[in-house]
Amino acid sequence: MKVPLSWIREFVDVKASAEEIGARLGLRGLPLESLEAHGVGADGTPADVVMDFEVTANRPDCMSVIGIAREIAVAYDLPLHGDGISRRQQGSESPTAKVVPLQTNGKVDISIEEPSLCGRYVGAIANVTVSPSPQWMQDRLTMCGVRPISNIVDITNYVMLELGQPMHAFDLTKMRQGKIVVRRAKPGEQMTTLDGKARVLSSDMLVIADAECAEDIGGVMGGSPSEISSATTQVVFEAAYFFPSQIRSTSRTLGLKTEASSRFERGADRTAPPRAMARALQLLAHIGAGTFTGDATDVYAAPYQPKAMHLESGRISGLLGMDVPDNAVVRILTSLGFEVRSAAAHEASPRPAGWEVRPPAWRVDMHRQVDLIEEVGRHYGFEHLPTTFPGVEQAPPPSDARIARDRRARTALLAMGFSEAITLAFIREQAAEPFLAGSPAVVIANPLSELFAVMRPSLLPGVIDTLSHNRRHGRADVRVFEIGTRFSVDGETRGTGFGWTGLATADHWSGARRPVDFSDIKGVIEQLAAVFSVMPSFGEASAPYLAPGRAAALIVNGQTIGTFGQLLPAIAEARDLPAADEIYVGEVDLDALSAASPAETLRAVALPRYPSVVRDVSLLVNDSLSAETVRGTIRTAAPPTLVQVREFDRYQGKGIPEGRVSLSYRLTFQSAERTLTDDDVSAAMAAIVAALKAEHGAEQR
Amino acid sequence: MSAPIDSSISPADARALFRAELAAVRTDAELQALRNRWIGRSNSWTAAFMEALKTATPQQRKSLGKGANDLKKDVEAAIAERASALAATRRPKNAVDLTLPGRGLQLGHRHPLSLVRDEVIDIFTRLGYQVLEGPEIEDDYHNFEALNMPADHPARDMHDTLYLRTPLQPRSYGAEVPAGTKAAPLTLLRTHTSAMQIRHMEHNAPPVRLVAIGPVYRKDDLDLTHTPMFHQVEGLVVGKGITLADLKGTVSAMARALFGSAEVRFRPSFFPYTEPSAEVDIRCFKCAGAGCSLCKKSGWIEILGSGMVHPAVFEAVGYDSDAVTGFAFGMGVERVAQLKWGVGDIRLFYENDLRFLEQFGI
Question: What are the domain boundaries of chain B?
């Protein structure tokens, strides 16, 4: 809300500078957004200063000069002049504006057919000569961001800015039969608004019509047929009260936000229309734009009844934690326009000591005692709040288990050299496609752009984009991960996704560089499983985003909880990664991984007391035989004293027949009861080699 | 140096000369040359001096001879000492270039938002809070209605909401917050973590002392200060006699822990779910209030929105608004990170450029 300081000073004799006023009101709930000097005065200083206040949605009363002046009056403990009508008068020798209260004679033909949408309608007829308004009026409108149009229209806008009551003026001769009918629009009814746009209305919208046609979208915008023109000689001024929700929905449906609608939709003052009308008619005479005919009607079926609210004095300190003296409570509320009576006067009341408070009609935000307490608190000043601390009444219940769990996964991945990324959770539809696994995507109805069209079903699209960004910005070796939510129509799951491209080894002057390969990414998965004490197994994964033959599934308790392997080069290329690079990615469901973790039942195992025996064996087998199968055969054939099987070499090439591979295993035997003898171990080895030969035709080398 | 030394100088003068020459010695070779010139068998100062002594009187010979012998011993000792000192500084054959870079055991770097998130979690855990996360897809009731923002409430304008094209059916919300009695379809991305307040209070009687943390979503275009997804920390304390002054104490403690600035300022404001409401500023920790670019010359930095829980919110979750009061506050994680580290452009947090991430340690 932009207001010139000169206009404010018509209502309150505040001596402070605009800066000082802004700083103080900021601490009273009305922050100043900006200050702008306007014009040059006699002494070379700015003639006026436009103060732009940020008015919160609950305070439509402050969308007016008088509303802001009232806040200043309370903040500086100064009287507010003019009872809503400005004390001094612009463009006049007379120091005082004489505003005659409106007298109605009921001779304006107004009917409200929809009292649920329009709570009051004041109309008054004036004979006018349309011309530009005086310069002082045009200047003020301009400073407030309103374009001057003509004296009649400018008067309505001036009153709106000054008192917060939106007004309208119709060319009376254009109103068929001189009637004003407040009714719902007929379905499909058409009207051209003042902005020149043809509007199709619906029956949930309110219009001001004449005997036949809609002439104005009530509280939103007027219509062009009855617009004030230079030929207009007689007008009917409107000052009405429209209910907020209807204005809000009409404004939203039509995509039409106006100065009037933004005031009505937040809640206008039901008692203001006659005051506003009286001020408009006074201005009309004052600027010589016309004369009031004396014909005025006020249709006001259900007059405003101020709600009596109780304010307990103990409740103020109970909520704020600071004591506000009784006289300050009374001063603040009274200055804000509340009627305040000491509740002690009502002896019948059993309630504790306090006040009976009636808010003024412009304070549409007053519903409960806490609203009153806020008024008292903010004007007494939050700077008086002491600093106290809430006592702990009970031991806090445990935090979300995912927090500690995610920290474990994060720590492990950081230790493996992955940096943490956080990406936006919405991605383009095409990027989500390969990760959906046949399930529909969670689609945003009103996305910012197609880049943010669907909620990610996987963390990998974000990881891949992060790899790509870093590759394009001079990093050849990139390791990143993200921990976050994945979205599907079945719900949200938390996972971690990671990607690796470039060197697996640190780039170092000593050489020994090696690009990342499948075993590296598998190692990451194995370590993650180990962090959660989970025994994993691995299988082929069907993942359309991974290269065939290099797509693996992490299986725990028979359930696939992760996928990893080499990214399909076509996907890499589509995300601006070089197709020639091998990129390895993986994703693990952290909810499932932690569910499989035996953390609760984990028991430490005592260290063995007897030495272990290590034997190596090299075998020649078909190269299609998986290491896991060989390991399985070894374990089945071995006695329980076999505690570890480890592949330590795999060789194909010179000396090995085509289609065969040399696999070397290191087997560790150990007993918890005794030292194993050479014979024990040799017998075990013989059984193992025999089984390998029988099952896989393995030759010992 | 190779010139023979004048044997006519006295042992006392010779000692001073020797000391000066020894001090200039830098290498083994220089030391050897020095040794030869002073105490070598031939062509040395000692040899020449002894030679010259032969022509001296017996009495002179006795005193000068002793002086020459003492000098010879001193020279030998000083040379030996210097020789071992030189040996100690000599680099062994297998010495390495200490200035070459080490072989990195590569460590990853933590995201700054994650660092702030954990810092906040740790601060509030220390203060006895329960830390919760919650669903990111929400229903209208938990995100708006129960927070005193009915369908046509003007305050909804402050939250530009992203909606789902097809609403999802409600499901269980995880161990901490069981499936609610309010089982409305999920239609939107939560615009604030305040939705978690409702979910928690629906299932837990007071007292409440919680912090909810996580991503939230608004239809904001990406620019210097906005991203359509950002992270929020929400605090909620409910109990008997909780006051706005308690909020001030709590926020001061947090500000001290996060920024080292404990002076806070409350400015009245408006949020539908709190009454009274306040925006909280902290004393600028960069200029201590004098006015700088960080605080836009005001001496204060806005860090969060807060207030006393609105009675309508308590009524929505079945709390007795006459019996309990509570405070709530909400703060942006990005904002804290921007202030802490002077990050001007919020989009940097979502670009994940390693050159940026690597600035924050782990």
Answer: 11-89, 112-360
| Domains defined along chain A, listed by start | 2-80 (3.30.56.10), 109-299 (3.50.40.10), 317-357+368-383 (no CATH), 401-596 (3.30.930.10), 613-700 (3.30.70.380)
CATH of domain B112-360: 3.30.930.10
**CB spacing of B135 vs A31 below 8 angstroms:** no
Question: How far apart are alpha carbons A219 and A250 in whole angstroms?
Answer: 10
For residue B174, the model assigns a pLDDT of 40
Q: What is the pLDDT of residue B175?
A: 34
Q: In what order do the strands lie in the sheet with A46-53?
A: A2-4, A46-53, A32-40
Inter-chain residue contact A424 with B228, CB threshold 8 Å: yes
Q: Do A31 and B154 touch (CB under 8 A)?
A: no
CA dist., res. A165 & res. A581, Å (int): 69
Task: Find the closest chain B residue to A370 by CA distance.
Answer: B275
The whole-angstrom distance between B269's CA and the closest CA on chain A is 5
**How many residues are given for chain A?**
701
User: CB B307: neighbour CB atoms within 10 A?
Assistant: 27
pLDDT for residue B182 is more than 80 = no
Residue A490 neighbours by CB under 8 Å, 6+ apart: A439, B171
Task: Give the pLDDT confidence of B79-132 residue by residue, as tens digits.
Answer: 888 888 888 888 888 888 888 888 877 889 999 999 999 999 999 999 999 999
What gap in Å lies between CA B353 and CA B362, rounded to an integer? Answer: 15
Within the 356-375 window of chain A, which residues sit less than 8 Å (CB to CB) from chain B?
368, 370-371, 373-374
The interface residues of chain A toward chain B in range 645-684, judged by CB-CB distance below 8 A, are none
Is the preceding peptide bond at B207 cis, omega within 30 degrees of 0?
A: yes
What integer best gives the mean pLDDT of chain A? 91
What chain A residue is nearest to B110 in terms of C-alpha separation? A420
- For residue A700 the two structure tokens come to 């010992």
pLDDT the model gives residue B178: 44
**Per-residue tokens: A190:** 């058409």
pLDDT in tens, B148-179: 988 877 667 666 899 999 888 766 444 334 44
* Residues constituting chain B: 362
Q: Closest to A387 (Cβ–Cβ): which among B189, B249, B353?
A: B249
The residue of chain A nearest to residue B241, with distances taken between CA atoms, is A318
> A425 and B229 in contact by Cβ < 8 A?
yes
Contact across the interface for A29 and B269, Cβ inside 8 Å: yes
Residue with tokens 């994060």: A410
> What string of DSSP letters covers A420-478?
E----SEE-HHHHGGGSTTSPPEEBSS-SSGGG-EE-SSSHHHHHHHHHHHHHTT-SSE
Beta bridge partners of A585: A499, A565
Q: What are the tens digits of pLDDT across the range B202-250?
A: 989 999 999 999 999 999 888 888 999 999 999 999 999 999 999 999 9
pLDDT for residue A85 is more than 70: no
Sign of CA dihedral A423, A429, A434, A439: positive
Using DSSP's 3-state secondary structure scheme, residue A118 falls into strand
Q: For residue B289, is pLDDT > 50? A: yes
Please indicate whether, in this complex, the C-beta atoms of B100 and A399 are within 8 angstroms of each other: no
Residue A242 burial class via C-beta count within 10 angstroms: exposed 0-12, middle 13-18, buried 19 and up: buried
Residues of chain A in contact with residue B272, where contact means CB-CB under 8 angstroms, are: 58
In Å, how far is A138's CA from the nearest CA of chain B?
31
Q: What is the pLDDT of residues A419-476, one digit of tens each?
A: 999 999 999 999 999 999 889 999 999 999 999 999 999 999 999 999 999 999 989 8
A419-420/A478-488 β-pairing: parallel
Closest by CA to A680, choosing from A646, A639, A644, A645, is: A639
At position B276, the amino acid (one-letter code) is: P
Q: What is the mean pLDDT of chain B?
A: 86
Element containing residue B195 per DSSP (H, E):
helix B194-203
